[in-house]
Structures
1.
Amino acid sequence: MNTEATNESNSEAAIDDPKRAERIKDEVRIYFYPKIIFLLPTLIYCVLAACYLELAGTDGSPTSTQAQTVEATTESSENTEVTKEVVESNTPEATVTIIFMFVFTLNLVVMAFDFPSNRFLALIAFVFLAMAGLWILSEKNPELMGGLSDFISSIKPAANGAFFWTMSIMLGILFLIMFFARKLDYWVIKPNEAIHYHGLPQHSKRYSAHHMRFEMEVNDIFEHLWPFKAGRLYIRPTNEKNEYILDNVLNVRDKNERANQVLSALQVQLREDAEV
């Protein structure tokens, strides 16, 4: 009889264990990053631009079509100078570099300022569209803008493939350092505790997960756009006066929801254990 009762209790426990395992979620690791993480679009563009210039085979010399145009105008030195200017302004290096300037400037604006509302997003989009419109207008109809068109047309930035490869390598090294440095300060949320790992050599501080609170804040609409979905996370441990503020947490909504699921699963388990 005792053996049958033991087997029945073991079978009931085996049935309850999967249900309890479903309630107890996996641990959640929370990493936060410096502002340089938002230079990722610039890094991606530099790699693409370097590959494009390598495939285009541009080495600073005019293509065959451009060379024929220059040879056709060798009769007059003035016409030759004008043609060279047109050739220089229409090279792939010039187009790629202008796009790079827009991308890099937008990245710097995102890193330098906080835009907590969609109105700022519309404002920045309007400014960049206005600048692009002025540049296109100065190229197509320079007489409409007078001296301003001459000033804009005189700006002919150009960077070769070596520049973009160098930028890609430099930014890539910084991103690798940042990836490994994130291990120096991060949080692990478990069903029964929250662990804060920090320092080198690494130290850990444990907090009870019971009554711990997590709050999320999207303080910059640009930083919260895809692919970062970044935001600020507040961690308030139990019986602690101080709160921890984690900036630039990627996928902050998902991290916040998963952390709260771990805490809610713990509370449900505690209530069931108390009822038993």
Note: Strands lie at 28-31, 185-189, 193-198, 203-208, 213-217, 231-236, 244-249.
2.
Amino acid sequence: MAWWNKLFGGSGPSGRVEYYDEGLALIADDKVHEALTSFRLALKESPGDVVVLQQIAIAYTRIGMTEEAEKTYRHVLQKDTQSAGAHYGLAFLLVRSGRGPEAVPHLRAFLENAPAGKEASEHVPHARETLAGLTGDAGQAGQAGQAGQAGRSEGQDEPT
């Protein structure tokens, strides 16, 4: 583990311990509590890093600490108002907690700044469909939204 390397003087090729990468690997193995520890250590190495904070929020969401996840996403948005991942994560926490109207501006902000790529292609239709359902514009969600919803399971609302 990265903390072991730091304790005994080992480090990565760049001269720093890769807690963030370790956290990603752990979360991929569904070791969410361990990943959270690694992300917290990464945050100590790089205080205020919005990417690390978003991963912490995702980990909180996966272990059911949704209030902490919401606070963390809001903290990210104070630092970076354009953070698509934070808008997306916060929006779906709000929807799940029955606060759909609060989620609408976050879904719109996500869609305005949505990242490109394969992972985003799964989240964009889901966000469009959810926004359409919340605003009553179901016709605008189109077939793309329905395709994005197929196969979606619990815990996949967060972009990685």
Note: The domain at 17-149 is CATH 1.25.40.10 (Serine Threonine Protein Phosphatase 5, Tetratricopeptide repeat).
